[in-house]
């Protein structure tokens, strides 16, 4: 019998515990494994956070004690486990653990390196691409074909997944918009309170017409591996000096800078001038945002991407907004940058940090 792991952050956990990614009941990973019960799969619910340690036991010890074979884990939690060096101890037996599936946000190469080099060498590590709107996944784990770092192996059963260019052509080997071109059983029939399905049509069917679901994610199908990777939200794309890129490309370029705790990059449009990109960074405790750090950020982006990819503005903020699923909230920050006001938002974990993005002269005066 297979054991399946999923965890959530309970509301009654002590407030002193460090924050981490959770699986709240409204999120897809909470519902995703329920159908496994029909196959007599035993679900193991971990009521806590992955980085919490107690009495010499850590996350990996819980997996060992409960003979967990399959984990569905947010890639953000893998980042946290690595950053805090939470690894299996010398007496932790993980023979039971066979598969780790990452989701929630595009995984990084270092996530794979950590799991395969520091956790267990003979793991099957894969990436799952899902959709909150569909309450399902677009991709699946396939043990019969190779898995490549940062790629989902193949579309899930019954999902006619494609990557479209701006003209609506299915493309391979170039980035484009992730779309589904045929109905699947989990497609929503309507949105709550959406009369005549106007909001749904505008959000998901307006770009390529009726019959093509647009997920608003930028992606890429690899012609060699046949897998695909998600670059980022297409509605959060960065534009500067005529170049277009995803914020995740910036994040990947600076992820190795150990003084940085978190970061978020958005595009600021202008009526009279060209659009420019702004990178906000949050420093780790005890670290200072110096000219040297700023130079290191610029050099890393220039080397990994290109000179024109370096955001025109790089500045420090005390906190980076993340939603209840621990995802960066680029759209929200961009709205604040463009309007200098804080919109109403309900799904944010740290709303107090939003005020730090207002009334910044360098941003407000850019018309």
Automatic annotation (TrEMBL):
Molecular functions per Gene Ontology: acetoacetate-CoA ligase activity
Gene3D superfamilies the record matches: 3.30.300.30, N-terminal domain of ligase-like
UniProt KW Signal keyword: yes
Signal peptide coordinates: 1-18
Keywords, comma-separated and alphabetical: Signal
PANTHER family in the cross-refs: ACETOACETYL-COA SYNTHETASE
Protein name as annotated: Acetoacetyl-CoA synthetase
Source organism: Larinioides sclopetarius
Upper taxonomic lineage: Eukaryota, Metazoa, Ecdysozoa, Arthropoda, Chelicerata
